[in-house]
Amino acid sequence: MRKPVMAGNWKMYKTPAETCSFFQTFRPLVEAAEHCDIVICPPFVNLAAAVESARGTRIKIGAQNLYWAKEGAFTGEVSGPMILATGAAYVIIGHSERRQYFGETDETVLKRTLAALDAGLIPIVCVGERLEQREAGATETVLCQQCQKGILSLEPARFAKVVIAYEPVWAIGTGKTATPGMAAEAHGIIRREVRNRYGDESAREIRILYGGSVKPENTKALMAQPEIDGVLVGGASLDPVSFASIVNYHS
Ligand code: PGA
């Protein structure tokens, strides 16, 4: 069985002090949660504080982006080896906000994914359709294209390390969650593409998370779908009690 990944994406919220105080409340609430992997992705400046606060627990820390060069004259950028050196283990790649506001394309998503794998980080690679694409009936085409130009061009051994996040852009931060059925259908499309490219075993093992207005109230229904292997949570991951109840969705 695939172990669920419950991941929080803090986006551009919280200072190092706020990060420490989040963990003080959060740690005891998820101490018994062994059914899943827990990942918190704070802004770069909080990585060290988060790693320190999570020490001695099963909680892993991730960044929200990276640049593909290892080092160099790239003002404002942060590389995979730098992120790994903070003690972080994951990195979110190709989030729709990066695609929408910061010019991220399928090509740069692939470059960053390769750089994450080179550095020894686990990439959480995001795909998802925009509202007008869904309304035009193009969801499947968009997902297939994003996957084919990105993760499906990895060699099999490298692909095995990736986590995929399906995040319909129209559901992010809008309060409009995809229904569990809609999410499962999209996950099924992605898994089918994985099967076509890498075979049955890879399709069985790849973890596909759902993201977009996940809340304590809707997590159980989403997680009841066999296709959904975890969640990537924005807004509801900022509050330790709310994110802990998402992690502990089955209790
Ligand atoms: P949201 O964000 O949960 O606030 O909709 C999800 C995401 O962007 O990963």
Structure notes:
The protein has twelve helices and eight strands. It has helices at 16-29, 47-54, 80-85, 96-101, 106-119, 131-135, 139-149, 156-159, 180-198, 200-205, 216-223, 240-247; strands at residues 5-9, 37-41, 59-63, 90-93, 122-127, 163-166, 207-211, 230-233. It has an eight-stranded parallel barrel with strand order 1-2-3-4-5-6-7-8, surrounded by six helices. Helix 1 packs parallel to helix 2 (47-54), helix 1 (16-29) packs parallel to helix 12 and helix 11 (216-223) packs parallel to helix 12. It is globular, with a radius of gyration of 17 Å. It starts with a strand and ends with a helix. Bound molecules: 2-phosphoglycolic acid.
Question: Which helices and strands appear, and what pairs or packs with what?
Answer:
Blueprint: E1 5-9, H1 16-29, E2 37-41, H2 47-54, E3 59-63, H3 80-85, E4 90-93, H4 96-101, H5 106-119, E5 122-127, H6 131-135, H7 139-149, H8 156-159, E6 163-166, H9 180-198, H10 200-205, E7 207-211, H11 216-223, E8 230-233, H12 240-247
Parallel strand pairs: 1-2, 1-8, 2-3, 3-4, 4-5, 5-6, 6-7, 7-8
Distance between the termini: 19 Å
What is the overall number of helices?
A: 12
Biggest sheet overview: 8 strands, parallel, barrel
The Cα radius of gyration reads 17 Å
Q: How many strand units?
A: 8
The hetero molecules present are:
2-phosphoglycolic acid
Low-confidence stretches: none
* Helix-strand topology string: EHEHEHEHHEHHHEHHEHEH
Q: Percent of residues in beta strands?
A: 15-25%
- Strand order across the biggest sheet? 1-2-3-4-5-6-7-8
Rounded average pLDDT: 96
Envelope shape: globular
Helix-strand makeup class: alpha/beta
Work out the helicity level. Answer: 40-55%
